[in-house]
Structures are given as structure tokens and as C-alpha cells.
Amino acid sequence: MPGVVHSRQDVEVTEDRNLRAGRDYSLWPVLKWGHATRLASGFVQDYQLWRIGLGMETRAEYSNNRRVVTFYASLATSPPVHEWSLRFGDILHNYRSALDALAWAMVNLDDNSPQPQYEKQIYFPMKRTLEAFDKEARTKLSSAPRFILERMAMVQPFHVKPGEAVEDGIALILHDLDIEDKHKAALEAQAVAADMTSYSIRYRPADQEGWDDAGVMEPEWLAPDRPVENGDPIVRWTFPAPVEEAEVTELPLRLLVRHRGKALDVFELLQLIDWQVGQTFAVIETGRFRSEE
Predict the structure, then answer these.
(1) What whole-number distance in Å separates Cα of residue 50 and Cα of residue 52?
(2) What is the b/e burial string over 42-65, where b = at least 16 CB atoms within 10 angstroms of the residue's CB?
(3) How far apart are the C-alpha atoms of 154 and 145, rounded to whole Å?
(4) Amino acid 73: pLDDT
(5) Could you state, in order of their start, the residue ranges of all structural domains in the chain?
(6) Beta pairing partners, 192
(7) In terms of C-beta distances under 8 Å and separation of at least 24 residues, what long-range contacts does 159-162 make, across chains too?
(8) Fewer Cβ in 10 A, N or C end of the chain?
(9) Which of 44, 100, 71 shows the shortest CA–CA distance to 270?
């Protein structure tokens, strides 16, 4: 999961002016942001309810000597991946729309207005280079006050540290996924078995014999590299002695979406997008980044 939120805090801003939605510009951008946040929260809650409704998420099969236990996915209901994809796309669109509405408010700030040929081309800029941003500032965004353009420049993706990729910026991920969902194939938000470190196992030995010098047990990871389905093998444990009972109550599931060949955790990504949008609003309104404290 990318953790890069590209921005720059040392760009000179020439006007120390604080803006407030509802007083200096329309409430609409903030309302769109709040709507996106509520959609994301509801998505998380419904995903958690689906997980709770599964009950025991695995079933165990024992070898004849009860030393080898294989755990299989046990999904009472299939993951509603199409619904999740639609909801994820709606959330992205609202976050992006909040930023675009903010850009529209800024080019109309102080009774200004964009040139007629640009009125339908106003979007919040997310540029990979300074040259591309400057071109937008001189044309589509030229009616915005200078201090607003300087603040917009502070949150552009091209502000990267050495070794970082511009494309890993959260703003560009939001931009790319939003376009993909609108113009290309639907996003595939998929529940996949994640890794061996994200689950816990409980077991009860049949007796104590053979366990005193058991050493470290190495489970065998069996989960397929695709969306998990009911009955898929997940993990196999080989014990040093027979076990009376063993259980993995929850599957190590993650909801993933792919971007530029990388698998991203959907909920972690949404948290980072909300953080990025919040920082963008803070910079546009105050010229300063929101405190992390």
C-alpha cells in the first residue's frame, strides 16, 4: 500500500488569507467531501457486517493421525464483489468531485469567473510536472487569485522526494481510479486471502506427549492468488503430536483493488484519500497543512 501523500510545505504563499466555506465560497465542495466520507464509513460498516454474518469462516479437515489439519474457506454467503465495486467507485467519484467543486469555487472567488472557453474544463489540477501545472494556471485556472494558485501548487503530485515515484501519490491514484471506473472496465474490488501473518489459530493437544520439544511449527500457505471462494484451501498445519481440536475462526481476508499492477487495500486507500482531500482543503483555505496532532 502506498503511503506517499505528495505535497510541499515550503512553497511561498504571498497572501495570508483564511477562507471559509459558506462565507467566502460555496458550501458545495465541503458537502461533497462529507458525502464521500459518509459513503466510505457505510461501506466499511457493511463489509464488517458481512464478515460477522459469516460466523466461523473456515472448516478444518484432520488427517487420520490428527497431526495434520487443513483449513478451508467456509463462506456462508459469497462476497458481493459487484456491489462493492459499484460502491467503491461512487466513493471515489465523490472525493474527486469534492476537489473539482473546490477548484470551481476558487476560479470564481471574489466575483471572478473563468474565461468562457474554459467553463466546462475546470477540474482540480493533479499534475505530474511543474510545467503542466503552470500551463493550467495560465489558462483554465487563470481567474483564480494568485495566492490560490500558489496554494494549489503546494499539493501537486510533482512534489516528490528522491526515490519516490510521482505515480504513487494518493491524489494521482484517486485520479487514475476515478477515470478508470468511469471510462474503462469496472474496478474489481476483490476479497482475497491475504497472508500468513494476518490470522490466528487455536488448538488443543490430544495429550501432552510429544509437545515438550515441539519447536517451531511451519504452516503451509495454500490460498490461491485470486479472489477467495467457498471451499478454497487456505492453510495447512502439521503438528508434532495429535490435536483434539484446531480452529481458525476468521479468514485472513483483505479487500483489494489493483492500480498499475499493484494490489492496494481498499480501506487503507480510502483512509489515505480522505486524508489527502482534507489536507488539500486545509491548504486552499489557510495556506497551511493541517496539524497531525
Answers:
(1) 5
(2) ebeeebeebeeebeebbebeeeee
(3) 15
(4) 93
(5) 28-286
(6) 254
(7) 159/6, 159/7, 159/8, 160/4, 160/6
(8) C
(9) 44
